[in-house]
Amino acid sequence: MIILLKKEWLEMLRSYRIVWLPLLFILLGISDPLTNYYMEDILATVGNMPDGFSMTMPELAPSDLLIASLGQFQMIGLLVIVAITASMISRERQNGTATLIYVRPVSNFSIYMSKLIAMALLTLVCTIAGFGASMYYTYLLYGGVSTTAFLLLMLFYWLWLLMVIATTITFSALWTTSIAMTVAIVLFPLGILLDSVIGAYWHYSPYKLALYGASWLTTQSDYLWGTCSIVVAWTIFVSLLGIWATGWKRSTTKI
Amino acid sequence: MDTLNWALIAPLIVIQFVLMIMALIDIKRIHATNGPKWVWILVVIVVNTIGPIVYFIFGRKNV
């Protein structure tokens, strides 16, 4: 298990994942506070507005900007995370690394969990880097929010990401990279879009966890704990499924 | 625009630059990429932020 984790760590270093993914999140995190702050200047320079055009800018509270950053993470950040997670197990099966692991006495549990733990740590770093950067800029330009609310916001966002990666790794254990990636992209980044369009009709949806987590900043949502338990239950379920799938593929491999 | 605070913008530019340099160094060192190397170099330099990210996800040939 420890050795497998070390191997995952090495792979993250070699693919520079540990560096560029947090950098991307930092970039996404600071883009919203900055563009909103300079919106008037940007419109004046490139907006092509007629003379005398005036526009009242909404007064933004610090929490609005953190939620806007959250939206950025949910679109681009999530897409990137899903894209790199979807190949974690299936690629090893394709290029033969998996066979090398299968002949050694390691449990299916260790194979699956080493991937999950590695990605969980990476996404934790991303969450902290992204929200940290967003908070820093928001604090400089707009003002602060309560520390507990901010920490809880990050915690719940990470919980949501944990569900996303657990599900995606399970898909990766079940299918080939391309199928896993397609299904995961339809399920998560597109699922969020769908949920935000027609999601007003239901309250308990895993997609809303991050948003409910953000509600600590303003008023606490009534649906937070219900949604949270759905997410945790689903994460445990897909992890078990993933461990089973790893074993199933292992038993069908010819050595 | 005179009031533009460069201390605020600088990190944005630095991060984009770091991503670009990292991608370029990796293209130089890696054995082969998916598709011709010069196309990736062009993509990484011309398309800022998204270029290096797309390279890191799809351009690297994982052996």
Give your account of this protein's structure:
With 255 residues, chain A is mainly alpha-helical. Chain A has one domain (2-34, 62-252). Chain A has 12 helices and no strands. Chain A has helices at 2-14, 17-37, 39-46, 62-85, 90-95, 97-102, 108-141, 147-174, 177-187, 189-198, 209-214, 224-252. Chain A is elongated. Chain A starts with a helix and ends with a helix. The model of chain A has no long low-confidence stretch (mean pLDDT 84). Chain B contains 3 helices and no strands. Chain B is elongated and about 45 Å long. Chain B has one domain (11-59). Chain B has helices at residues 6-29, 37-46, 50-59. In chain B, helix 1 (6-29) packs antiparallel against helix 2 (37-46). Chain B is an all-alpha fold and 63 residues long. Chain A binds chain B through residues 15-17, 19-20, 23-24, 26-27, 30-31, 34, 38, 41, 44-45, 80, 83-84, 87, 91, 95, 137, 140-141, and chain B through 1, 3-4, 8-9, 11-12, 15-16, 18-19, 22, 26, 49, 52-53, 56-57, 60, 62-63.
